[in-house]
Design a protein that fits this description.
rod-shaped; Lipoxygenase-1; five-stranded mixed sheet; five-stranded antiparallel sheet; 4 helices; 3 domains; alpha+beta
Length: about 325
């Protein structure tokens, strides 16, 4: 910030000085430390009746309140009489005046004038302040608009990234489903082929087939049909067969888990209520003969997962009980 100073030396005998002169200023916003001043346009400044001028650069002092004008009282004729001191803000034109009307060597001043300033010209301060306020308002609006635009762009970017992540996850899930579907089809095809091989190897389960399921010349009908249920015992508790037998989905090989036992139930009050005469074969496989699964035609074998039953074919039973599974299950 640039300030100009104007100092009026009194028009009385011996009012001028040849000493060096210093000035310091105190404002509401800042303090200017003491600097030496002189009039660049004068050959011999501070003479009787002279008005000397100069400028100083400092930070913005705000409203100037006080200051100190000092003479070091060097050289001949060191005394100095000052009428007044004016300081002007070159940016907005404000001017402050301190009335002095005194000698430096009177009353023990030791070359110092303590200055008390009053605003004597407001210049363009009000207009400039309004301009600054308007500029600040426009800048604030501009910054707010820019911030809003950035936030909108950020939101749009986040949305695009979220969509991309969703598409990526969806694509990955779809690929996994395709793999699972392919695997399930292969497993179904393998199971079908295994059933055909088992049927070719042992079409009647190694015994003469009894009367056809659902009736025949023997007249046994449903009255001669029996359902057996396989269930598990684990830690002394009755559990669904699925909790004691583990089957590899790829190879189809089934084994009894360590600590588990497979129990054959013949009555409805055993296991999960699937066994009995005729039992619940008709509920799950109505119209189908157990012979389709390598079993005796009048003897269905079911297992439970705790909510429903499923057929246990000859291959499964032979893995659990060995080649003599009929003796283990039917006896």
């Amino acid at each position: 910030m640039r300030y100009t100073w104007t100092i009026k030396t009194g028009d009385v005998w011996y009012a001028g000085t040849d000493a060096n002169v210093f000035l310091s200023l105190n404002g509401l916003d800042a303090v200017m430390k003491e600097v030496e001043i002189s009039d660049p346009g004068a050959i011999n400044d501070w003479e009787k009746g002279d008005v000397n001028h100069g400028s100083i650069e400092t930070e913005d002092l705000g409203e100037i309140q006080t200051g100190v004008l000092r003479s070091d009282q060097s050289g001949p004729g060191a005394g100095w009489f000052v009428d007044w001191v004016k300081v002007r803000n070159e940016e907005d034109g404000r001017e402050w005046t301190a009335q002095v009307g005194a000698w430096t060597d009177h009353d023990g001043r030791n070359g110092r004038f303590r200055l008390k300033f009053a605003l004597t010209d407001s210049g363009d301060y009000e207009r400039i302040q309004k301009q600054k306020a308007e500029a600040a308002r426009k800048q604030a609006e501009k910054d707010a608009a820019a911030k809003k635009q950035r936030e909108a762009e950020d939101a749009k970017t986040r949305e695009a990234e979220a969509d991309a992540d969703f598409d990526k996850e969806l694509d990955a899930a779809n690929k996994q489903l395709e793999k699972d579907l392919k695997k399930a089809r292969l497993e179904a095809e393998l199971a079908k082929k295994r059933a055909e091989i088992e049927k070719l190897k042992n079409p009647n389960g190694g015994v003469m087939p009894p009367a056809p399921y659902g009736g025949g010349s023997g007249g046994g009908g449903m009255g001669s049909f029996r359902t057996f249920e396989l269930f598990g015992i684990m830690n002394g508790m009755t559990v669904p067969l699925a909790q004691v037998v583990s089957c590899d989905r790829v190879t189809g090989i089934c084994t009894v888990m360590p600590g588990g036992r497979v129990i054959v139930g013949e009555q409805p009050n055993e296991g999960f209520g699937l066994a009995g005469v005729p039992g619940r074969w008709q509920m799950y496989y109505g119209g189908r003969s157990p012979a389709e699964f390598g079993l005796d035609a009048d003897k269905g074998v079911l297992g439970s997962d705790g909510s429903r039953g499923w057929v246990l074919d000859a291959r499964f039973l032979s893995q659990i009980f060995g080649s003599g599974w009929r003796m283990a299950v039917y006896s």
